[in-house]
Amino acid sequence: MRFSEAKNRKVVSTSGAVTVGKIRRFIVDPRSVSVAAIVLHTNKNVDGSNDTVFWRDLKAFGRDAVTIESADVITRPEGDFELLADKEHRVLGKPVLDDGGNDLGQVKDVEFDPANGRIRALLTDSEEIEGDRIIGLGPYALVVRSG
Amino acid sequence: MTAPEPVGPDRGTVLMRAKEIVKRPVVTLGGEAVAQIKDIVYGGSAGEIIGFTLAGRGLFAGPRKEALAWAKVHALGRDALMIADEGALEDRKSVLAKADAHGGDVIASRVLTEDGTELGKVSDVILEVGRTATVVGYAIDSTEALGKNGRTVLIPLPHTISVSGEALIVPPSATDFVTDDLSGFGAAVHAFRTRLAGGS
C-alpha cells in the first residue's frame, strides 16, 4: 500500500464504534525501516491536542478503515520520538542521497506493508528504491545505500 | 610518496572540476548537512587532496574552525560529500599542517611547456576522485599555441609536476592529449602518462 492511497483513511475506535479521525501523515523510523506512527486529523470527539497513534497500537490497517481499540491510544509524540515526528523528518518531498553523495531525486510516495508497517520502497520520479537500502533520515536528506 | 594508479576507464573513479566541488554540502549518513566545502587542501607533488576547509551552510555563514581530512570522507559524489557523522570533522590546523603551500594555488598561473611555449592560464583543476582524490589535469584558457581559438581546454598532467606561484611546467607532449571537455579526458590522461612512462 502507498502513503498516497492510505492518506485520509478513516480511523475507527472499535470499542466505541466511532470514527475518531482520518490519517494526515506517517512518521517513519529509519532504524527499523518502518512506519512508527500515524498522525491524524482528529474529530471533535478526541481530547485536546493528541493526534498520534503508534503502529503497535493499531488493531488493523484495513482496506476501508484503520482500527484502534479505543481513543485512549491516541497520544502525542514525546522524548526521542518527538524528533522523528517533527517537520524536518517528514519523508514525503525529502531529497534522497545515496551514500556515494549522489542525488536520486525527491520522495514522491512510499510503499509499505499494511500488515507490519515495513517500508518496502521509496518512489521518486525516476526510480523505486528498496526500503532495505535506507541508512538515515535527517533534516537535509534521506540517505540510502548505493544501488 | 607512492605514485597514484594510472587513470583509466572502469577503475571506479570519477573526474570532477574543483570549482564544482567547492560549496558542495557535507552530509552525514544520518541525513544532516553539517557544513559546506570552502576550499580544497592539496598536498604533495602528486597533487593529492588531503582534505577540505569548511564553511557553515547558508548565505551569511562564515568559515568553520573545523576541517575535514580526506581519510574521514565516506564518499565525494556529484551532489554531496558524505561523512559518517559530525565526529569526522577535526581541528583546521591538523589538516592544514600537511598542506602543500603551492598545490592549490594554481588558478591564473601560466602553464609552460619544458621547451618554453606558453599554453594558457589555469582556470580550474581537474580531479580524479575515487578512494583517493588527485589532480590529473587543468582547465586552461588556451593561447594560440594550442590552436583552439583561445577556448578553455583540458590538459593532462604527469604524475608529478613542478609548481611555483608563477608557472607550471609540463612536458611538451601534453599538447597531444588536450580535450575540450571531461568526456574522454580520463582516457587522455591515461594515454599521456603511458607515453611518458615509455609505453606506446
Describe this structure in words.
The complex is a heterodimer of chains A (147) and B (200). Chain A is mainly beta and 147 residues long. Chain A is built from 2 helices and 13 strands. Chain A has helices at residues 3-6, 80-85; strands spanning 10-13, 18-29, 34-42, 52-54, 58-61, 65-68, 95-98, 103-106, 109-112, 119-123, 128-130, 134-137, 142-144. Chain A is elongated and about 50 Å long. Chain A starts with a helix and ends with a strand. With 200 residues, chain B is mainly beta. Helices cover 10% and strands 40% of the residues of chain B. Chain B has 3 helices and 14 strands. Chain B has helices spanning 18-21, 92-96, 185-196, and strands spanning 14-17, 25-28, 33-43, 48-55, 63-69, 75-76, 81-83, 89-91, 110-113, 118-129, 133-142, 152-156, 162-163, 167-170. In chain B, a hairpin with a 4-residue loop joins strand 2 and strand 3 (33-43). The longest helix of chain B has 12 residues, at 185-196. Chain A binds chain B through residues 30, 97-103, 135-143, and chain B through 24-25, 27-33, 74-82.
Summarize the structure in short.
The complex is a heterodimer of chains A (147) and B (200). Helix content of chain A is 7%, strand content 43%.
Write out key terms for the chains shown.
heterodimer; A: 147 residues; mainly beta; SH3 type barrels; 2 domains; 6-stranded mixed sheet; 4-stranded mixed sheet; 2 helices; 13 strands; B: 200 residues; 7-stranded mixed sheet; 40% strand; elongated; disordered N terminus
Low-confidence stretches of chain A: none
Question: What is the CATH C-level name of the largest domain in chain A?
Answer: Mainly Beta
Counting H and I runs of at least 4 residues, what is the number of helices of chain B? 3
Number of domains of chain B: 2
Tally of DSSP helical segments of chain A = 2
Q: Regarding quaternary structure, how should these chains be classified? A: heterodimer
User: Spans of chain B of 5+ residues with little confidence (pLDDT < 50)?
Assistant: 1-10
Sheet with most strands of chain B: 7 strands, mixed
